């Protein structure tokens, strides 16, 4: 048995949470493989809305096992908040959630360091979510991190103190010498560590590989998006993990030859939150309309998301890097009222046209070249069948499939679980 991977192809917030929830009944296990509480995955059903940050989006279905993998960075305080609120909503979390002992812990000083690093960059700041993601992954790769399994060791406090001392000296180097909130944050953190230990802390790589041997079906849930990948995204305006398909291998202990279908998810247009290049960004009425109709405000930070037309140059690159087998298009309904739909099919750089994503999209002057298609001018959010879709919309989908050379197998026409059209080619 192989694992399937679902991941974002743009700059995050494509709608991963919604689709993982929709697909979960087809799987036995749902596992997050990277990122941390920088993620905000929104699910809506039965008139209720949930935003998940560290917990996989498979917890609301039929008792599937959900795993927080070794590639994830976990903030015990935010985890506790999220978990307790889910338990209050009636989810029996302790019976369905397992956490890798190899997942790294976000410490209070990681969050302070994230803020201090951003402040030191001034205008060049990344616009991080402020959750301590960068400093925690930095400690992981510099071999200084603390892992979930370390909380069970007798020298845990000593290792915590050593890490904290290093963070404080790093902050001093950035000119930060006072930490008025730290004592309070630490107290909450250690209480949350005690709470975390009430969960099933496992060697998730063994668990998943055993499950595959027993023919169980596994869905890996990505966070962020390909353009935020630390290797292939718009560096340095990226997150600090591998958000791409290969991240599922390292973030869960799955061999590359065990990857099955790769579901690449994108919006019918494009958004980005935080700083960094965005070639198709719109500053006009069209961009405003996308933000208003699409409610494009961050699920975690509430920040306004920057909006623009779909960027097929970047999307084709993302399809290549991930080996996408199935495309999933989200928020199609947001474009229902547009007369004309635009899709960027090439970049003009110094008078030359290219459809290959260049090394650096920050420092070069990119003019997006658009293909225009007629809008469908039909409200689609009540549609549930492929046959109901208006012809200009299916023409847009065919155009995207032809450019990206991968079929679109799921279409989303609203935030609710039910507003999802699974096309016949999904069941191939
Ligand atoms: P994720 O981080 O990839 O899980 O995506 P987010 O939850 O951050 O952002 C997606 C937003 O769009 C959420 O508010 C969803 O409820 C909403 N959403 C998802 N699919 C659709 C859709 O097809 N149409 C509309 N209008 N909203 C959607
Ligand atoms: P989901 O999983 C959108 C962005 C931040 C910032 C950059 C680095 O909901 O799609 P970080 O805190 O990771 O160091 O911030 O990455 N970012 C996201 N943008 N969706 C996300 O997650 C994001 N997670 C991080 O805004 O630009
Ligand atoms: Mg999100």
What structural category do the secondary elements indicate? Answer: alpha/beta
The global form is globular
Instruction: Please tell me how large the radius of gyration is.
Output: 21 Å
Average pLDDT over all residues:
97
Stretches where pLDDT falls below 50 for ≥5 residues?
none
- Tally of alpha and pi helices: 12
Total strands: the figure is 20
Query: Largest beta sheet: what is the strand line-up?
Result: 9-7-5-2-10-1-11-15-19-20
Largest sheet: 10 strands, mixed
Helical fraction equals 25-40%
Distance between the termini: 17 Å
Listed once per kind, the bound small molecules are:
guanosine-5'-diphosphate, 6-O-phosphoryl inosine monophosphate, magnesium ion
Instruction: Report the portion of residues in β strands.
Output: 15-25%
Explain the overall architecture.
The structure is a single chain. This protein has helices spanning 16-23, 76-88, 93-96, 108-121, 133-141, 156-173, 182-196, 204-213, 246-252, 285-293, 312-322, 391-404; strands at 3-8, 29-32, 41-45, 48-52, 65-68, 73-74, 97-100, 104-105, 200-202, 218-221, 259-267, 270-272, 306-308, 310-311, 326-330, 340-349, 352-354, 366-374, 408-412, 420-422. The protein is α/β, with parallel strands linked by helices and 428 residues long. The strands form five sheets. A ten-stranded mixed β-sheet has the order 9-7-5-2-10-1-11-15-19-20, sandwiched between helices. Strands 14, 16, 17 and 18 form a four-stranded mixed β-sheet that branches. Strands 3-4 form a two-stranded antiparallel ribbon. It is globular and about 65 Å long. The mean pLDDT is 97. Magnesium ion is lined by residues 12-13, 39-41, 299.
């Amino acid at each position: 048995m192989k694992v399937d991977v679902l991941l974002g192809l743009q700059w995050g917030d494509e709608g991963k949470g919604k689709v993982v929830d929709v697909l979960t009944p087809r799987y036995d296990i749902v596992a997050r493989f990277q990122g941390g509480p920088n993620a905000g995955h929104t699910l809506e059903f039965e008139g209720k809305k949930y935003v998940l940050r560290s917990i996989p989006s498979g917890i609301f279905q039929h008792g599937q096992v959900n795993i927080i993998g070794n590639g994830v960075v976990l903030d015990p305080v935010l985890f506790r908040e999220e978990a307790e609120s889910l338990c209050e909503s009636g989810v029996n979390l302790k019976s369905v959630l397992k956490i890798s002992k190899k997942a790294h812990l976000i410490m209070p000083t990681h969050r302070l360091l994230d803020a201090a690093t951003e402040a030191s960059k001034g205008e060049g700041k990344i616009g991080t979510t402020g959750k301590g993601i960068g400093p925690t992954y930095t400690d992981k790769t510099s071999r200084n991190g603390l892992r979930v399994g370390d909380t069970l060791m007798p020298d845990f406090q000593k290792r915590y103190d050593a890490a904290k001392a290093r963070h404080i000296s790093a902050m001093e180097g950035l000119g930060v010498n006072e930490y008025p909130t730290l004592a309070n944050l630490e107290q909450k953190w250690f209480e949350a560590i005690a709470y975390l230990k009430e969960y099933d802390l496992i060697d998730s790589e063994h668990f998943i590989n055993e499950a595959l041997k027993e023919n169980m079906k596994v869905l890996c849930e990505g966070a962020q998006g390909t353009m935020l990948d630390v290797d292939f995204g718009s560096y340095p305006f990226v997150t600090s993990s591998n958000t791409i398909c290969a991240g599922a291998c390292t973030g869960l202990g799955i061999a590359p030859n065990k990857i099955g279908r790769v579901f690449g998810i994108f919006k019918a247009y494009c958004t980005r939150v935080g700083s960094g290049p965005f070639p198709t960004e719109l500053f006009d009425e069209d961009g405003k309309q996308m933000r208003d109709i699409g409610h494009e405000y961050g699920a975690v930070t509430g920040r306004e998301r920057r909006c623009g037309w779909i960027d097929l140059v970047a999307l084709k690159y993302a399809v290549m890097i991930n080996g996408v087998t199935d495309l999933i298009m989200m928020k199609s309904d947001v474009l229902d009222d547009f007369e004309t739909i635009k899709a960027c099919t090439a970049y003009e750089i110094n008078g030359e046209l290219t459809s290959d994503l260049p090394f650096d999209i920050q420092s070069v002057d990119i003019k997006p070249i658009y293909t225009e298609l007629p809008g469908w001018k039909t409200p689609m959010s009540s549609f549930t069948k492929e046959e109901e879709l208006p012809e200009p919309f299916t023409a847009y989908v065919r155009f995207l499939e032809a450019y990206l050379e991968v079929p679109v197998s799921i279409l989303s026409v609203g935030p609710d679980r039910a507003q999802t059209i699974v096309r016949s080619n999904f069941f191939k």
